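User: Can you recover a sequence for this backbone? Please restate the input before giving your answer.

Assistant: Of course. Working from this structure:
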């Protein structure tokens, strides 16, 4: 599984998500390759996408050395990393040499083109704020037109034929509604989707398993889906 960390395309690194990756590797009993992609504002859109795709191609090319099956790959990420995972999963449909069978999207950014109710309802007080999202968008984009690029807003993509998906959203997350909408659009496109909205949770909860039992439950959900995908 190739993992892309969150951080609004601006912050985050291998260390910030090391615990998360180790937990998934242990629970899912799989190899996890964490990607240290270029960050904005020094590297603006679509640099992160280019790096995410290049890393996924590298995993495919080096699968034997990594001890993985190149025909059974997964991509995953949280927040902005979930955005990258979704886009890479969609790109794989047009590149036969990259075979992704599962995408794991943890409270992903899927739509930069509009405000949904949760962006207002959860604008302040729940870790990730609306002002922070605006700041991230401003630092990552070059022009307003970038927001309408499917590589930025994957909800604008044709999702038919996309890999099976696990989508996790949080009830008190500004990104809740766009994650829910993406899961619904995947279902409409005929994609097998395991979607859970964790009510009462905030953005970032997935990595809080040492303090929140629900986080461990979410990790177990992801691990079970990955195990099933790799075994099928």
């Amino acid at each position: 599984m190739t993992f892309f960390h969150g951080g609004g395309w601006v912050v985050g690194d291998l260390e910030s998500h090391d615990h998360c990756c180790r937990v998934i590797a242990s629970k899912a009993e799989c190899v996890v390759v964490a990607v240290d992609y270029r960050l904005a504002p020094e590297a603006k859109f679509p640099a992160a996408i280019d790096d995410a795709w290049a890393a996924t191609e590298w995993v495919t090319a080096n699968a034997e050395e990594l001890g993985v099956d190149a025909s059974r790959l997964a991509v995953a990420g949280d927040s902005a990393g979930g955005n990258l995972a979704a886009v890479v999963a969609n790109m794989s449909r047009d590149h036969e040499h990259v075979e992704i069978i599962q995408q794991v999207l943890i409270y992903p950014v899927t739509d930069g083109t509009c405000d949904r109710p949760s962006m207002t309802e959860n604008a302040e007080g729940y870790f990730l704020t609306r002002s922070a999202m605006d700041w991230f968008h401003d630092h990552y984009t070059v022009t307003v037109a970038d927001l309408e690029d499917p590589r930025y807003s994957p909800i604008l993509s044709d999702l038919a034929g996309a890999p099976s998906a696990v989508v996790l959203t949080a009830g008190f997350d500004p990104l809740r509604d766009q994650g829910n909408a993406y899961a619904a659009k995947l279902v409409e496109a005929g994609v097998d989707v395991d979607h859970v909205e964790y009510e009462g949770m905030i953005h970032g909860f997935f990595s809080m398993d040492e303090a929140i039992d629900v986080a461990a439950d979410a990790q177990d959900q992801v691990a079970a889906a990955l195990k099933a995908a790799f075994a099928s």
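That completes the design. The chain has one domain: 2-231.
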